[in-house]
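Lecture 7, part B: from sequences to assemblies.

Below are the input chains for today's worked example.
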Amino acid sequence: MATTQSAIGRSITRGEGPDKVTGKSIYTADISVPGMLWGRVLRSPYPYARIVSIDTSKALALPGVYAVVTGQDVPETRVGRRMLDMPILAQDVVRFVGEKVAAVAAGSKDICDEALLLIEVEYEELDAVFDAEEAMEPSAPDLHPDMDSYTGLPQPPSGIKNTFAHITWEKGDIEQGFKESDIIFEHSFNAQLMHQAYIEPHACIVDASEGNQVNIWANNKDPYMLRDQVSAAWGVPTENIVLHPTSIGGDFGGKGSFMDVPLCYYLSKYSGRPVKMVMDYIQELMAGNPRHPAVMTIKTGVMKDGTIVARQARAIFDSGAYGAFKPRAYLGGADHLCGVYRMPNARIDSYTVYTNNVPRGHMRSPAKPQVVFAVESHMDMIAAELHMDPYEFRLKNVMREGDASPIGRHWSQIKALDTLEAANKAANVRDARPANTGIGMAMTDLVQGTGQFAAKIGLSDEGKPELHMAFWDTGTGSHTVLRQMVAEELTLNTSDVQIILETTANMPFSAGSGGSRVTLSAGKAVVAAAVDLRQKLVEAASPLLDAPEDQVSLQNGLLMAAGRSVTIAEVLAATGSESLTGEAHQTPEAPDLTSFCTQIAEVHVDPETGEITVKKIISAHDIGAILNPLNHQGQIEGGMIQGLGYALMEELELEDGHISNLSFGDYKIPTSADIPTMETVLIQGDVGPAPYESKGIGESSNIPVAGAIANAVFDAVGVRITDLPVTADKVLSKLQELGNQRK
Amino acid sequence: MFATEFEYQRATSVSEAIQLLSNNPGAKILAGGHSLLPMMKLRLTSIPMLIDIGGINELRGISVENNILRIGALTTHAEIAESYDVKDNAGILWETAYGIGDPQVRNRGTIGGNISHADPASDLPTVLKVMDAKFTIQGTGGLMRGGSRVVSADDFFIGPFETDLGENEILTAIEMPVLMANQHAEYAKMAHPATSFAVVGAGVVLTVEDDVCTAARVAVGGFTPVPTRGLTVEQALIGKVLNEENIASATILIHGDLGSDVFGDVFASAEYRQAMAAIELKHAIFHATGLAHHN
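Predicted structure of the full complex, as structure tokens:
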């Protein structure tokens, strides 16, 4: 470790921030390549139909049109992040409203749109299925008859109709557990379809117009994985595919999918020009890769004193028409369906099912907001039946040090109880509250992922470190934190460290952003590269200082020994830049740690209208060292607000596969007027798996919000909403059912 | 996207505009263009000719004469929101105009265009109905008042995006009686959080003498094909002292005035909007009469 804490722990503002707010940042849509054309796609108006014929002759005849492609012009290859099940362009069948049927490359966007109107497609509609549970019935249409042959299935298909992944987690003996229980409760929940609502829609430029090399600019956060996906789809070797860096305007889990890139290559090939494709927001909301809706049932056996003995949970995730937008074919977050409670017997069944809806992808802490809403609502529903306080019920059952998780995982430290107690204390729950107000709590944990990362640190002519990576900042501030790490190891200021984004051709493989892995895994690679460079500086300084290496130290950017010092620039001048490069390419071990979060929401419900006002959300976190307090708090608060949107307002409205709220004028996301008082409680531990004993913070605060708010609404007016979002309409309807309009 | 090709004519007088309308089947009047142009660009409609009436100054302006407030059809929402004549004589309209869209929309959008478009989600039709507004319509025929006719707001709105306006007619002016000292008017709405359009809008104009309601016009809109008059609510209010109890028992009767044609969506179901109609109406009367506002 470094000798001084010069850079870590400071609220360093974003390096790219000024460029972003002044419009200087270059996003994919801003990039122009000489000779570039625009590409646009024609999408299916039907949820499920056979394509009888496509006539592109009129579109091709339109002046300014360079290429028109249909399914017949592209290979039949299926593409995907893991599951290869999505055609590049619909071959003979369309499976959702918005599926790509044909594409045009032309001199302008308007010519493209004009040409799309001239493409004549004849469809024969088929009987579609929109409900995941119905899709599992034997009588449902078989949406993917060739499913068994798809590459990337997690295991052989279970034999359930349209179900391409059935994953289970199990501990103990669930049947025995229920036999031993005094009382058994069972409840069902629904979670809605939600869009990530990043500001920047998907965009790409593909240039396959000359030679063997294919150049790609895309706002995709996983450049190497995208390279591998399109390499497989196109039959082009990875060494011929180069991903160029771009700014990314928000991700929230949604920018890991290939979207138009596989198709754009063929527009470029056929037109002989580079082609740019930018989705508009109508297309984003219709055919992006939104969060999975889920139908969940949880059954719990308890003793009369409230001790949980057994829990069985089932989640059905509607994957939409394809599974290609998931990095795994299933959602690992379903493993949270039993919560953060101790129980000897547990079983989780998770099903991922094809329907004729828009294909779903990843969104911030995939599957966890859905399942934690269910499990935390279920906890309060049991507590109410047992006439126990929800806090006391959780206190009785929450995991403590040494406990195995419901699915049998072991952690070296468990601070669930600490976060529960801290949140409860901050909420002052004993204070008398006005009529129609209530509080509700919910808790979760989140494990950081790992991945392979490469970092190289060289020196500028002035002796300033230059961190080279092929890793894009999705808007989380990761580049700034990585620069802080370099500064820390080289005892400099963060402002001395520049990040230089390389193409994928210039660096070995790096996993992209996601899974709360960046600070941990990219961070370890960057620290290792910085340590490597520091050692090389010490070696090079040793003869200059006339001192043995073990007596040379680096302090405040100076190499010092025996009262003498040389600057890094002087070492560079004497040694040359070739030998002064630190490098690392590594994958850290998966951590045996998790991080807990308990939230308490306080709401007021208008008994006349059902309208919910969230007055306050308290978020208590079990954290490690904080590398950048500003960024850390930004992640916590941003997550809480995104969770608030999920809890109360955000929903893509689906009717027979058609989404009706296709603009931000109709799809409501939280604005500053909706944001309640947010209070954060940080419980700092002394261990963290990431550099400097830190822990990831990006994906926990958005998870419990919906459960906490649903529980608070119940506390306020006695109605239980089990399907998200919790709207005034639903609350009023339940209030009227209750005939219980307390004034 | 570009709109499909269309002809453009700029009329210099109302009679010229009507002439162009009758000589060019399918032609449409272009006022502020706030609803029409986006529909054309999205190719939701294709129109062979647009007749721009933006240069006809006789269609602009606000005046008060003989206790009648007259607003030219081409008057923008911004002009209405900035007018003391409107503020002093029809405060309910002044406030509603100020709440339409954003400054860009208010600067371009016109009252006549809004009414002719007859979007059921719009606030103005409900407000004009309770204000007992009359619309002057000019056409080709030898109608009374020199080729023009007058239609009340009650009769003008026929259905969603459908009005009494004929093919070759132009809405030229909106007139309404000014509010008297003993009249209280208010428009209350539950707004969609993203669009700000009315989930439910409720307008009231009440005449009060010695605390007793002697005349009432109430209407709700935003979730019915056209704004719906609350005739039974009006009857229940007239002759009553306007206290909380009487207001609550009268406004609940709006459920009976609403037909079966009530809109709902995922944000707010038809049942929810029906329930909110009584609540918003109650809020409007509370505000109008200065009773303590229910939280």
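Note for the exam: The radius of gyration of chain B is 19 Å. Keep this in mind when comparing with the next example.
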